[in-house]
Prior knowledge:
Elements: E1 12-14, H1 16-28, H2 37-43, E2 49-57, E3 68-76, E4 82-89, H3 91-94, E5 98-99, H4 103-115, H5 119-132
Antiparallel strand pairs: 1-2, 1-5, 2-3, 3-4
Amino acid sequence: MPLDQPVPRSLKVVDTAMLVTLEEIALRLSLSQRLPVAWVVENAAPEGRHLWPAFWQRLSHRPDIPDHLRCELLLQLRTGDQVRSLLDVLPVDFDPLANVTSRAEGQRVDHLLNTELSVREWDLHRADGASGSE
């Protein structure tokens, strides 16, 4: 989809296996917004994750990479915490993902994306806690 198309306003949900696949695709294409796959495998809970498309991204210096969506990502962790991140996703991979149809769920995710720690903040907080307990 070209940049002149509107950003999809659909909230998507993915499980950990699909999230790992999306992260691997982003890694293979050297897209800048992604998490290390090992981190996702180690920390993500098996329950659903939410993707909320934010804007279209075009890499003018890399014409071999199609326009893609920069999505906000809300992750449920094994610890019970939720964290936010970003993930670049190709439209061909985004479109078939399951939609969240509940307005209440969409509002909840929107609120959490604006209030939860980022992955980096969570990692720093966890590291501070570990070093403070010694």
